[in-house]
Amino acid sequence: MNGEPLPNEHGAPVRVIVPGVVGVRNVKWVGRVVASTEEAEGPWQRGLAYKGFSPMVKELQGIDVEKIPSMHELPVQSAIVSPKPGSTTELDDLEVRGFAWSGGGRGIVRVDVSIDEGKTWVTAELADGKDQGYNRAWAWTFWEASVPVPPELQGKEFTVLCRAVDSAYSTQPERPEPLWNLRGLNCNCWHRVPIRHAE
Ligand SMILES: Nc1nc2c(c(=O)[nH]1)N[C@H]1C(S)=C(S)[C@@H](COP(=O)(O)O)O[C@H]1N2
Ligand SMILES: [Mo]
User: Fold this and answer.
1) What is the pLDDT of residues 141-179, one digit of tens each?
2) What is the CA 55 to chain-centroid distance, rounded?
3) Which end of the chain offers a freer environment for a tag, N or C, measured as fewer CB atoms within 10 Å?
4) Probe ligand 1: pick from 8, 21, 26, 185, max atoms within 8 Å of CB?
5) How far is the CA of 178 from the centre of ligand 1 (A)?
6) CA 3, CA 124: separation in Å to the nearest integer?
7) What is the C-alpha separation between 72 and 25, in angstroms, rounded?
8) Where are the domains of the chain?
9) Residue 32 CA, ligand 2 centroid: distance in Å
10) Ligand 1 site: residues with CB under 6 angstroms?
11) What's the fold here for domain 77-197?
12) Helix (H, G, I), strand (E, B), or coil: what is residue 159?
């Protein structure tokens, strides 16, 4: 892993790597591999562990969980690493850095950053990870943006937002509420980091 022998906690001696797919399919400490035309037994593949439901589903009564497809590929996602939530900046050009990823090997084609709740956006520079093969982008793409703090936000508290676009031109939804689900999975709405500007 990362050029070193695989450590025990990450699955040594043998781990399955299923690129572009949710972590749970990357089984650690593999003992046996069986080829089958049937989905694997057990809660992690057939049960509700990695299944999505409508926000209206608050309990499983009357739902045939086995009929709902399990998650494999994931939706496009991005996160801000810097600045940290609650931090103060004195810069008039805010340096924002983070990473983005999408399922199924779909690469990241664009990341947008906003400090005014999405009224205006600055497109980030894509860095390490941007040159992965088409539909073979298994790793994160790092990005950075320089966002000018307008006079009306100087000395104020505001929220830094980001959202990514993948090679399918899918993007992230604005709010978490319509994504709410029983298992709390796939919440890929805009990442929000509240900060303060000091004059
Ligand atoms: N044998 C085994 N493999 C497993 C798990 C497990 O509980 N047992 N957890 C899975 C889940 S849910 C995730 S998210 C990843 C986490 O891998 P990591 O610890 O290398 O990040 O391992 C997966 N592989
Ligand atoms: Mo997981």
Assistant:
1) 999 999 999 999 999 999 999 999 999 999 999 999 999
2) 20
3) C
4) 26
5) 28
6) 29
7) 8
8) 77-197
9) 21
10) 10, 23-24, 26-29
11) Immunoglobulin-like (2.60.40)
12) strand
Task: State the burial class of residue 69 (Cβ atoms within 10 Å of its Cβ: 0-12, 13-18, 19+).
Answer: exposed
Average pLDDT for residues 122-141, to the nearest whole number?
97
Give the other-Cβ count within 10 Å of 178's Cβ.
Answer: 10
Nearest Cα neighbor of 101 from 162, 22, 164 is: 164
* pLDDT attached to residue 199: 82
Residue 157 burial (C-beta neighbours within 10 Å; 0-12, 13-18, 19+): exposed
Residue 22: left (phi > 0), alpha (psi -120 to 50), or beta? beta
- Cα 7 from chain centre: 25
Amino acid at 52: G
